[in-house]
Design brief:
CATH architecture of the largest domain: 2-Layer Sandwich
Number of strands: 11
Largest sheet: 6 strands, mixed
Radius of gyration: 17 Å
Shape: globular
Order of helices and strands: EEHEEEHEEHEEEHE
Distance between the termini: 49 Å
Structural class: alpha+beta
Strand order of the largest sheet: 8-9-10-7-1-11
Helix content: 10-25%
CATH class of the largest domain: Alpha Beta
Strand content: 25-35%
Number of helices: 4
Number of domains: 2
CATH topology of the largest domain: Gyrase A, domain 2
Length: about 200
């Protein structure tokens, strides 16, 4: 009997730019450790203290994102946060489950979500075709987080520091099963500006 091994695949592993140009620059954030953190009843202060001690991060209040080093926490709802770690994969959630078990319920989302980083001089114009939020710098500041709908697809969106060229940088989180539909929309919305697929470090703030 031939043994067949399952090999993890990125949900955006075969993406390709539909039109030349650098109006919108996109990179796959596959490999992130991702976990939903649900605060236990009465444990908000204890959780904040624990996260501060572990990561040096002041937990955000409301729809904001705070980061230190490779770890970040984004407020996505009442007493709910989305934690991410660079290259953390499933081990990140496992570590949070162990260290935060008295203060929060932790659910591993590393294999359930897909994440793209978006930048470029025309990224706001492309996103405006499907995002019903005002993403202007005056309305959506660095560190802001929104749970929203992108072309009928549920998504979480946050803004990072601007890129070296001054372009805004966003990350968008969607369910992995909807990655293909989201990519179809993004490709069409970005085509007139030109879309480039790049490694994450090429547009890292």
């Amino acid at each position: 009997m031939v043994e067949r091994l399952l090999v993890p695949q990125s949900p955006f592993g075969t993406i390709a730019a539909p039109a030349a140009g650098r109006g919108v620059i996109v990179s796959d954030r596959d490999g992130l450790g991702i976990a939903t953190v649900l605060v236990r009843n009465g444990q908000a202060d204890a959780l904040a203290a624990r996260v501060k001690d572990m990561f040096g991060i002041d937990l955000p209040h409301g729809p904001r994102r705070a980061a230190s080093g490779s770890v970040a926490f984004a407020g996505t709802g009442p007493e709910t946060l989305l934690a991410t770690a660079e290259n953390g994969a499933n081990a990140f959630a496992a570590s949070l489950m162990e260290t935060l078990r008295d203060q929060a319920a932790v659910v591993d989302q590393s294999d359930g979500y897909a994440v793209l980083r978006l930048s470029g001089p025309s990224v706001r114009e492309a996103l405006a075709k499907g995002v019903s939020l005002d993403l202007h710098a005056r309305a959506f500041a660095v560190g802001d987080v929104a749970a929203t709908i992108v072309s009928h697809i549920g998504a979480t969106l946050w803004r990072l520091d601007d890129g070296k060229d001054g372009s805004p940088v966003f990350e968008v989180v969607i369910f992995r099963s909807l990655a293909g539909s989201f990519w179809d929309w993004l490709s069409e919305s970005s085509a007139e500006f030109g879309l480039t697929v790049a490694p994450p470090d090429r547009i890292r703030p």
